[in-house]
Design a protein that fits this description.
alpha+beta
């Protein structure tokens, strides 16, 4: 859940990096062995293509820090916004946190990236008779 939200937040804003093998609270380098890097890479690539809609492409790189391997995951800036998780939940960055997108915000997001046009939306309880004849 947390990884999904972090990736979505990266896509919504300007992209970002996720570093695996570093203690989140202290910044201590934990490091990863080759087998773990291989397993995590496979999990990440499968996860990126199956849990974010539309699917995303990520890039990973193993970097040696303090004689320990860490995995740097690059999540590029999203070019196919808006994105949602596999449960069709859309997330947005709000200050230092993230939150679910309201239906109104979702419409604005789609509109801002040119995927929703007001003139193409149905008008309830209207008919052809409501159109001007001139």
């Amino acid at each position: 859940m947390i990884l999904r939200q972090k990736w979505l937040r990266c896509l919504i804003i300007e992209g970002g990096l996720i570093i695996i093998g570093v203690e989140n609270k202290t910044g201590d380098i934990i490091g990863l062995n080759f087998k773990t890097i291989e397993t995590v890479n496979n999990l990440l690539f499968n996860w990126a293509s199956n849990n974010i809609k539309p699917a995303i492409t990520i890039f990973t790189e193993t970097v040696l820090v303090e004689q320990k391997n860490v995995l740097v995951v690059t999540v590029p800036k999203g070019i196919d916004k808006p994105y949602c998780d596999k449960d069709m939940v859309f997330w947005i960055k709000s200050a230092a946190n993230k939150r679910r997108v309201s239906p109104e915000e979702l419409r604005r997001l789609y509109q801002s990236v040119g995927k929703l046009y007001a003139e193409r939306q149905p008008i309830e309880e209207s008919s052809i008779a409501d159109l001007d004849k001139y």
